[in-house]
């Protein structure tokens, strides 16, 4: 049905617009592989309108959208503001590390996605998602590596990334000893060294290795 045209990040959007879908929602998550902090999801509905059958009106398009991992932090901040300004609506939802440990990261991502969609001010006609199937009564299109292939998912990827990065940057000094403003919670060598020095905090994920094999989550273990 869809051509894998890497040069056209609107191929999915144009196809669904041509079929009569108006509110196309891109969804993406950030922080899935982190050892620290929440997993964060953004759901974004951008203004999209076809003319001449297969062309999009350009006035509401945010240029330079791509997978957030391929864009510099400075550029992501610029694009974030443009996306928020242009979006018909958006929603951001985070699931904390305690819940991730209780229900596992896969279910935590799905929980965050469902809540992000349910919190939108406009009900989407279709969801474009990066390879996840949600238990929700809305048509879905799962796109592997969707943040690099779909404009809508790319927008969601940037919103989620900037929001979570800001969250990491704004955490109090107690958590900054783990260098989270730099590593954003990922398991870098520097981050692992700080865990060895101080032990994991209450925002670390005890179900993730190597924390799981080396630390037991009890009240005495939590550094509050």
TrEMBL record:
Cofactor(s) it depends on: Mg(2+); Mn(2+)
**Reaction catalyzed:** Endonucleolytic cleavage to 5'-phosphomonoester
Q: How is the cofactor bound?
A: Manganese or magnesium. Binds 1 divalent metal ion per monomer in the absence of substrate. May bind a second metal ion after substrate binding.
InterPro entries from the entry? Answer: RNase_HII (IPR022898), RNase_HII/HIII (IPR001352), RNase_HII/HIII_dom (IPR024567), RNaseH-like_sf (IPR012337), RNaseH_sf (IPR036397)
Q: Which Pfam families match?
A: RNase_HII
The record's annotation in NCBIfam families points to: PRK00015.1-1, PRK00015.1-3
- How is this protein named in the record? Ribonuclease HII
Query: What is the originating organism of this protein?
Result: Brachyspira hyodysenteriae ATCC 27164
The organism's lineage is:
Bacteria, Pseudomonadati, Spirochaetota, Spirochaetia, Brachyspirales
Name of the gene: rnhB
């Amino acid at each position: 049905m869809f051509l894998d045209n890497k040069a056209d990040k609107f191929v999915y959007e144009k196809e669904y617009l041509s079929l009569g879908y108006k509110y196309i929602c891109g969804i993406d998550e950030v922080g899935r592989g982190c050892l620290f902090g929440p997993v964060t999801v953004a759901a974004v509905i951008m203004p999209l309108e076809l003319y001449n059958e297969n062309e999009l009106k350009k006035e509401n398009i945010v240029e330079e959208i791509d997978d957030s991992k391929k864009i510099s932090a400075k550029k992501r901040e610029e694009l974030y503001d443009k996306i928020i300004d242009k979006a018909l609506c958006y929603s951001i939802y985070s699931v904390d590390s305690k819940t991730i440990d209780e229900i596992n990261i896969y279910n935590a991502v799905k929980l965050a996605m469902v809540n992000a969609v349910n919190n939108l001010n406009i009900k989407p006609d279709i969801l474009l998602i990066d390879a996840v199937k949600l238990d929700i009564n809305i048509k879905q299109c799962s796109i592997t590596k969707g943040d690099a292939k779909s404009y809508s998912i790319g927008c969601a990827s940037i919103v989620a990334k900037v929001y979570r990065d800001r969250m990491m940057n704004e955490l109090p000094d107690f958590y900054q000893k783990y260098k989270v403003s730099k590593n954003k919670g990922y398991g870098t060598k520097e981050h692992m060294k700080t865990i060895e020095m101080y032990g994991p905090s209450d925002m670390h994920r005890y179900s993730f290795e190597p924390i799981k094999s080396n630390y037991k989550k009890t009240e005495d273990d939590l550094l509050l």
